Structure formats: C-alpha cells, structure tokens
Amino acid sequence: MSPIKKEKVGLREKLLAALGKRIMYWRAKKVPQLLINLSYRETIRLLIELYGDAGSALKAMFQLARDAGPDFLNEWVESASPIFSKHVGDHALWIKSGYYGFTGDHITYIEYFPPEKEGDPHRVVWRIDKCFLCAGLDQDNTIDIKKEDLKDFGWGAAIAGIFTATTNMINEYAGIEFTCHVRETKCLLKGDPYGEFVAEFYPKEKDAEKP
Amino acid sequence: MVSREDLHKKKGASLLIAMFYIEIFSELMKHFDVGTVEQKLRQLGENIARSYYEYYQPKESSISGLVKEIASNIGGIKKFKLTRVEDGFIVSIFDCPLCLEEIEIEGPHYCISNMAILETLVNLTLQDRPHKFRYKQIIGDIISSKSSGAEKCVYHYRLVEK
Q: Domain B12-161, what architecture?
C-alpha cells in the first residue's frame, strides 16, 4: 500500500521541491563536472572496447544506469516523498528537482503532455541547453565519435537510464500504475540545438501486453 | 556546447561517477582477469588526468601542496591525511568519491583509478615545472581501499629523484 495519498501536487509541494532540490544539491558530496564528464567518456571508451561500437556501448550504458538506479537512488526517492502525488504528470516536477539535485543545473524547458488519443502514452519532455556529459567532445582528439556512430542513442544515455530507474521507483513508491521508459531524442553531439529527453508512461497492464 | 574550462568550475554530485564506476568495474570483472581489470582501471584514471590537465594545472609548488590541491579541488576529497615515509609519502583518504562504504567488492583494489589520477596529475606538473621540484616523478601503488573492505583508502607514492 502506497504511503502517498495526494492526488496532485499543489503550491506547497512546488515550494518544497524548489527548496528541497537546493538542499539536496548543497548536501551532496560534489566534484567538478569536468571530472564527471571525463569519467563518463572513459567509461564509454571501455564499453566500446567491450561491445565493439559506440551505439552498442551507449545502449549498455543506458542499461547499466537503469539497473544501478535502485541501489543508488533509494535514499533520494525516500527523501523526496513529501513532494510526491499519484498524478503521472507531476513527474515533470520530480524530474526537474532530481536533475538539479544531482547537477546543480536547471532544466531550461520541461512539459507534461497528456495522451492525445487512446493508446498514446503520457509524456514528459525536457530539454538541456548545456549538457555536461558531451561538453568538449567536439574538440576531443582522444576519442573519435561521429554522430552516425551513436545509432538510436545519444551521448547522454546514462541520463536516460538514471531517469528511467528514478521514474519507475517513484511510480512504485507513490502507487502510480504506469511503467516509464526514457529516451534521448535530441543530442548536441548529433548536431541538434539542445539535448532532449522524453519520458513515456504506459499503463502497467498495457506495458505487460507488449512483446 | 558548454566548454570544459567552465565545467571545472561547476560542481555535480560525485554519486554520478560512483554509479558509472561500479558498473564499468563489474563489466570488466565479467570479461577480464584481476590483473587486466587493474591495468584498465589504472589506465582509465591516467586518461582522465591527462585530459583534465589540459584544462586545469595545479598551482602549488610543493608535492604535498600539489596532493592537497588535487585531492580537494578535483577529487572533492575533504578528509585525508598525508604522511611522509622513507621512500615517499602515503595518502590516507576517509571520504573517497569512488568507494561505497556499504559495499565490499572482491577483485583489485577498487579505487585504483583515483590513485592513478593523483599520480598522473602530480607527474604532469613535475614535468612541466622541473625547476620548482627536487623530484622528477612519483610512482603510485594502492595499499587498501574502502570498497575492498578496508577502513580507509591508502595510496603509497614513491618519490623518484632527478
């Protein structure tokens, strides 16, 4: 039985989220984003060595980040529970807060889109103007990544994996009967003007019917 | 695209690195023997340090000062101790950004990449400013690591005279 009773977040939860994300970031053990950027590049380099190409390496990174989520993010999900509700569209607020809590960066655009027709998923779309993961890669002569090498993934596959894990953990905690999958739909490294992620929420029964 | 120079000044949660690191560590352990994993993780640290040095060069003029500057400004390490030993020095780290206290991992010393980052950054500085230092190189070795079951991470560095 979920401890969350609230149907939708209100002003109080929005204010709490604005404060809470800053406290979370302030309390976090922090390192320069450049260290994160280079550690990520080296992790992908090793995954390319293991899986043969950048597309397969990024797919593996997505899966690794998604699977690691529950071990690493439990504490965050529990501490953020005062701003949870049962409304799937409120994921926009939680994603925005979580992203700031980990990076200290603001998501410049985020919006919830309810399904346009029956069978469509609920969607949350967000954009990042300055991505700390792909920064400097265009001038990095130690690794040669071409946009066509990325295949179905973007360089930020780990972000998609982490948020796939987080949104599903929140769904379970709050008793939201949806399964979420996050995709990176635009990537600065592919030449897009910004990074874009789409979280798609399918009702649990429908997801179970999928092959 | 944001520049890497700017990224040195901005901070993010070290948990993100810990997440990538534990996964790549497990993947490597599935595919290679312990010696190869150790060598690859050491290389990972060296690669990070070489690239980092392009955007940030430590300023201190003593080796102990360099170690403190790198540990604090790059590794986000606040709790550490530097001890002089006969052939060099020992760095004891109590808040390693890679190690996870609740997890005990078998295999090579877990945070070997961290040891290699420190070693490479100090060596690059010694090469660039030879007139400032008595030593030409440090050679690092990992003694213990929290995630491998120890109370603290301990790195031993041997000082090589010119």
A: 2-Layer Sandwich (3.30)
